Amino acid sequence: MSFGLIIVATPAAAIETCRFIEAKAEREACYHRQEQELAAKRKPEPPVTRSSESKTFDQLQLMRRDDEEVYRSMRGICRGC
Q1: Which secondary structure element, helix H or strand E, spans residue 79, and what is its range?
Q2: Which residue has the higher pLDDT, 74 or 26?
């Protein structure tokens, strides 16, 4: 169990070590490396393409049609009869 804590704590310790570097140039280089590592871990957002926009638009139109059908059917229901 303690081995698992060591593995989990290692990345956090790496982040904290930059803080304690006294030389400004080295500390900034450490922060820069960490930024690059975090950027590499993040997934880039998929670019918005025309096909995804049209797909979303088609889905919205379908939902509107469904809503209109529901509203029409509700108008036919006798309220307060």
Answers
A1: none
A2: 26
- Do 47 and 66 touch, CB atoms closer than 8 A? no
Q: Which residues contact 1 (CB under 8 A, 6 or more apart)?
A: none
pLDDT digits (tens, 9 = 90+) for 41-69: 887 776 766 677 788 888 999 999 999 98
Determine the Cα–Cα distance for residues 49 and 55; give it in Å rounded to an integer: 10
Count of H-run helices and E-run strands, the chain: 3, 0
Q: Please list the alpha-helical segments (H only) found in 18-49.
A: 24-41
Tokens of 25: 């140039």
Rounded Cα gap, residues 77 and 81, in angstroms:
9
Domain boundaries, the chain: 14-43, 46-80
